[in-house]
Design a protein that fits this description.
Elements: H1 2-43, H2 47-61, H3 65-76
Length: 90
């Protein structure tokens, strides 16, 4: 019985970690998509080209893609309400 309880506890913990990871990934994706849209608007380019610019900036600065995207959003929304909000149903 103890072994079954332990296995169940490990499965529950793994499911919780997976849910947290997925939520973080979706929040990062929101910032990246918004930053890509800003680049598309500013440079009049395609989504593919805008994402490539974002990726290149990330690699050149040796920063995570999410961090570069969040920096673009912060610059764009310095005097406004934050735009990078991801809504999740709980």
């Amino acid at each position: 019985m103890a072994a079954q309880a332990l296995r169940l506890a490990v499965r529950i913990a793994s499911a919780d970690l997976l849910a947290e990871d997925l939520k973080a990934a979706m929040e990062s994706r929101t910032a990246i998509d918004l930053a890509t849209g800003i680049i598309m608007e500013q440079d009049h380019c395609s989504q593919y080209e805008a994402f490539a610019m974002l990726r290149d900036a990330s690699q050149n600065r040796n920063e995570k893609l999410r961090s570069v995207a969040e920096g673009i959003l912060e610059d764009r929304t310095a005097n406004h309400e934050p735009t990078s909000v991801t809504h999740f149903e709980e």
